[in-house]
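ok so i was messing around last nite and threw this chain in just to see what happens. nothing serious, just curious
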Amino acid sequence: MAERAELIKEIDKLPEKYVARVFDFVEYLRQETQKEDPHSGSGSPAKPVKHSAFGRLKAYANPSLMQEEEGAWEKAAAEKYALH
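result:
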């Protein structure tokens, strides 16, 4: 248990960009441990885990810009490829 507390302290010292990498690594390890154990005899594989970035950038969302985002790609493509 002391090792986990020490690990948490070290993670807290990391810059935010590295915390996401640590999280991804922990997710990878979790998936590896959930895979079918050939010695268990159950024969049923674990459900595949979905990788998703959904929600990770929620803290950086700016609701006031969401209206401007509507149609932004179409507008940029029209400006870039417009015949002059």
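not much to say yet. Residues 16-34 form the longest helix (19 residues).
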